[in-house]
Amino acid sequence: MTSIKKVRKAVMPVAGLGTRFLPATKAMPKEMLTVVDKPIIQYAVEEAVAAGIEEIIFVTGRGKAALENHFDEPYELAQVLNAKGKTAELEAVTNMLPSNVRLVYTRQGSPKGLGHAIGCAADIVGDEPFAVLLPDDIIYNAHSTPLKDMVNLYEETGKSVVLAEEVPTERLKNYGILDVAGAAITNGQTDVAGFVEKPAPEDAPSNLGVVGRYVLSPEHFKYLLQGNIGAGGEIQLTDAMAEVAKTEGYKGLLLDGERFDCGDKVGFQMANLFFAMQDDYIAPRLQPFLQELARAQSKKAS
Ligand code: G1P
Questions:
Q1: What pLDDT is stored for residue 2 in this prediction?
Q2: 209 Cα–ligand 1 center, Å
Q3: Start-to-end CA span in the chain (Å)
Q4: Which numbered atom of ligand 1 lies nearest the CA of 16?
Q5: What is the mean pLDDT of each run of 10 residues along the chain (302 residues)?
Q6: What separation in Å is there between the alpha carbon of 278 and the centre of ligand 1?
Q7: Ligand 1 shell residues, CB under 6 Å
Q8: What is the distance in A from the centroid of ligand 1 to the CA of 45?
């Protein structure tokens, strides 16, 4: 048996236009929208680093330079903060990545779907397993990093892993859905036989939807690079996953924690409130305001 390779690399597709957030995203990448005091992208990068990833590949596009600048050492700013003795602020903008982690940028020249974006990283990833993080999804668990658990599961079993959560019937059409073919969920894990991208509720093989974290075998590139068009007229990552599930098997890990879909205005606002309430300075000041707001809102509704 060939030995299972370590998961060292992660791909983050960040070429999307962010049209749902216009005009905010007219001149700024949607991944730079802030959740409390950090841009969305920083949550995903910190999660990847916490899971032991050493190389992060951004699949980027036009107008995304702010993302690259964000992770650079800011020499002038650092000098000013240093001279003013602003240590906390200096800390927040320097050494954002451990010295063993590097960022690599490649481009998705045209928007042909998530599967196409991941395929753009094929040569940089090469013949080894890799994580995919969709930065729109912010995942929170106070005690662990679900991506780390997924990496461990891959390294134990050699099978690709997706993070999944139960999805209400009316939202099944927004997700890649797992086909567990009757397999049981044990210790928050299940075997997966296949996937369907954004099915109508009556065609959905389960109520488990893929959330934006994956640990994938390099075999996926074989299918992604064939460029077959799937749901919505796009090259779908889910279709490559369905093919790989047939030959290599697949694992689903149920999300233990919170997930915020920051690609959506409601999820984005929830993420801001949630993370604000984790902050020792903001929480006690925000809470009375939120309670008052909720009271006023119920009065208005009644
Ligand atoms: C993508 C994937 C879908 C997955 C979802 C998770 O869809 O295609 O399979 O369930 O991310 O956020 P999107 O949200 O980009 O439409």
A1: 65
A2: 9
A3: 66
A4: 15
A5: 87 93 95 97 97 98 92 93 95 92 95 95 97 97 94 96 96 95 90 96 95 97 92 94 96 96 96 97 97 93 82
A6: 27
A7: 114, 134, 137, 175-176, 197, 209-212, 237-238, 263
A8: 19
CA distance 75 to 193: 51
One-letter amino acid of 244: V
Instruction: Report yes or no on 281 lying in a domain.
Output: no
Cα–Cα distance, 164 to 183 (Å, whole number)? 14
Atom 11 (ligand 1) nearest CA: 212
Report pLDDT digits (tens) over 54-87: 999 999 999 899 999 999 999 999 999 999 999 9
Please give the C-alpha separations between residue 267 and each of 41, 56, 146, 210, in angstroms, as whole numbers: 15, 25, 19, 16
Residue 278, in any domain of the structure:
no
User: What is the number of domains present in the chain?
Assistant: 1
Of all atoms in ligand 1, which is nearest to the CA of residue 261? 12
Domain CATH for 137: 3.90.550.10
- Whether 301 contacts 292, CB under 8 Å: no
- Report CA torsion sign: 62, 66, 71, 77: positive
CB 167 within 8 A of CB 147: no
Distance 293 CA to ligand 1 centre (A): 33
Q: Which atom of ligand 1 is nearest to the CA of 211?
A: 6
Is the residue at 215 inside a domain?
A: yes
Q: Which domain holds residue 91?
A: 9-263
How is residue 205 written in tokens? Answer: 């093989």
User: Which atom of ligand 1 lies at the shortest distance from residue 176's CA?
Assistant: 9
**Mutational pocket test of ligand 1: of 114, 241, 255, the residue with most ligand atoms within 8 Å of the beta carbon:** 114
